[in-house]
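Q: What does the assembled structure look like for these inputs?
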Amino acid sequence: MKAYLSVFRLRRRLETQYRGAVLGGVICQMFFGIILIAIYRALYAGKPQEYPFSQIASYVWLQQAFFRMLLASDPDLLDKIRTGGIAYDLCRPLSLYGFYYVRVLAQKMMGSLLRAVPMLVFAVLLPEGWGLSAPASAAGFCWALAGLLLGLLCVSAMENITMGFTMRTLDSRGMQGLMNLLMMILAGNVLPLTLFPDSWQKVITLLPYAQMLDAPIRLYTGQTLPAEAPRILLIQAAWILILTGAGMFFWNRNQKRIVIQGG
Amino acid sequence: MDTIKLYLHSMRMLIKSQLQYPASFFMQTLAQLVMEGGEMLAVILLVDRFERLNQWGPGDLYFFFGMMSVTFYLTECFGRGITGNFPYLIRTGQLDSYLLRPRGLLTQVLCSAVDPRRITCIAVGVAALILGSSLSAIQWTAVKVLLLIEAIACGCALVLGLFVIEAIFCIYSVKSVELVNAITYGGRSACQYPIDTYPRPLRVLFTVLAPFALTLHVPGSMILDKPLFGWPLWAAFVSPLSGFVAFGVIFLVFRRAMRHYRSTGS
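A:
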């Protein structure tokens, strides 16, 4: 356990090194957020929906702020497989799955926090109807924080499954791209899941992708009431167990047939 | 003429080399389809929920989306040298070898890469154009076809020019500047929807500085018979030329910037 903790700490520190590069990305992301909100505002003006627009604006900002949680991935593993460096990782007295799970967890957590803080400050300062509004209730906010933490565990487990696929081929760009796109759409980054047709939402919100950001954001905006929160968190926890279990099984199978490249 | 022959020849060679790994190529092309299909799906779902955006109906929105996709991904496909690894060439000093050859710099960079995977994105764009055209019941005439071709050609010049801005920044700062993405990819995302969607500052940005509105939306709205700003037909033919003007201005700046180019390679 101590070993995993120190891997986590090291990765976390590494992720905070390039703050200058982060700033450019954050400003870009803010711009995207404003564009999206402008589009949804114009659409809303034509045909108002049952819930207030401020919820959509908050949804967009929270998705933009934590987008790095969805997309951060560990490029080292693929390089190691291609060069044979994976042999060193196999020698470690740690489970290969656990080692990479902790690494990607640290990366996703730190990477998104580093971006989320300036972005959320910016979003709060925007005028009413454009920016991020306060959480619906104190209880909702606390549930949302818990949900976000579970979402982080869920997205890391999912990332490891994607990695499991890419371990099987040497050129993984296609597969990785497909998995990531599926995630961006079904996690609500391309279009808020709350704007999907209502009948679709019943199914989509049960998928693992909706557990990552959509579930905590709905708790924050109050679209999911605090009374329903335990049920949501239970769904999240169930998916974490399923994804982690499936990932471990998958990695163990991969590990048996792994080929050490290079010489 | 000679330059065009050279370009086509390099394109042939590059495409052949990319097809050497068919499985990977196929997967990546499929990924592109899912990506642009996802963007299209977002528009379809928004239309399903909201029905219209200001005066634009579903067909109009698909048509604008299609114009932007075709324009942007045609550029990304055939202009990959500029939209893709131009900053990389500067950062690594590989640009030096280009400077020694008896051809224009931009010609060579254009000849250095092509991205045939984008074909599926272009296909999605064409599908959106056809869908939009039939839903909005566009009465096609020779003039409208000409206008569409002009708009897309000028749009391509504009997108190419915007990507050159990144190269210009790179000459001075070596590091590629992610901030420019706001205007290239941000411009694409924003101008999938007609310009009157946006508040004034964004409208000015995408009309004057990065004139997507003039190259795509003005002729597009004319084809849809709902001219923006109430402009007459001749204006719809003149305004897309701003794409070439923008490219020209950026190209001149680039030429000046190249005088400051200092190699980073060894």
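The longest helix of chain B spans residues 142-173.
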